[in-house]
Design goal:
Length: 243
């Protein structure tokens, strides 16, 4: 699978360079973190529109977010991935300023700024939503799968989800190829299946991120410009931004 499938191949080098430049300007340690978020949000598709609420583009801007940034979801949909990076940068700049963020040192921290900015820097026990509230109901799988299934969605639950998904995406994001290699004879009917051992061909170095908590370096200012939205089920788990 090609992570850049929704971008013209001729534009991919410029898009990747744009990602790198954006992350460098924002103080984001690894540009692949932003790429992973875009994949989880939209499949790295600048034109995708969610039918529930109209969230559009690479990081799924909702209409009010786009308007607040000085554009519109209609305009964003017409932009190329490279052009849309300008607005991705503006989104993060606004949140970083409000949250007093000068650098991002973990994937979970960066994704939290998209998912629920008010929880950035908060303790793992910080409550994002409880059962019966949209923030929980739209994202209950985070609690039931990565949390403790207690009807409460916490910052810790989301960080566990974010980091787990990030680790699973590494091969896709780097283009690593895994080819099963049989270590036994083909299995026959009513016999024990053959054991396959993968042979991995690394394509590039991808930053690992084992930190499940975040750096509590700022107080929360509550600048939440992303709202609830339904995500494309074919590119990532169907979760909603809870801001």
């Amino acid at each position: 699978m090609n992570i850049y499938a929704n971008i013209p191949s001729s534009s991919v080098p410029q898009f990747v360079q744009g990602l790198k430049d954006t992350c460098a300007a924002l103080g984001i340690a690894h540009w692949q973190w932003l790429l992973a978020i875009m994949y989880m949000e939209s499949g790295v598709n600048p034109a995708i529109v969610n039918k529930n609420g109209g969230a559009t583009g690479l990081i799924q801007f909702i209409p009010s977010t786009a308007k607040g940034l000085g554009t519109s979801v209609e305009a964003l949909k017409k932009m190329s991935a490279v052009q849309q990076l300008v607005w991705v940068k503006k989104y993060f700049q606004g949140n970083f300023k409000s949250l007093k963020i000068t650098s991002i040192k973990s994937f979970a921290d960066l994704y939290m700024v998209v998912f629920y900015p008010k929880a950035y820097g908060k303790a793992d026990s910080y409550v994002i939503g409880i059962k019966g509230q949209k923030a929980y109901d739209y994202n209950r799988a985070i609690d039931t799968t990565w949390g403790n299934n207690d009807g409460v969605l916490t910052a810790g639950d989301f960080r566990m989800y974010a980091n787990t998904k990030y680790q699973k995406l590494q091969d896709l994001l780097t283009g690593t190829k895994t080819t099963p290699k049989s270590t036994s004879k083909p299995s026959q009917s009513n016999s024990t299946p053959a054991v396959n051992k993968p042979t991995t061909e690394p394509a590039s170095t991808f930053p690992t991120n084992a930190v499940l908590g975040t750096l509590a370096i700022v107080a929360i200012g509550g600048y939440a410009v992303m709202e609830y939205k339904k995500k494309k089920s074919t590119t990532a788990p169907t979760f909603q931004n809870a801001a």
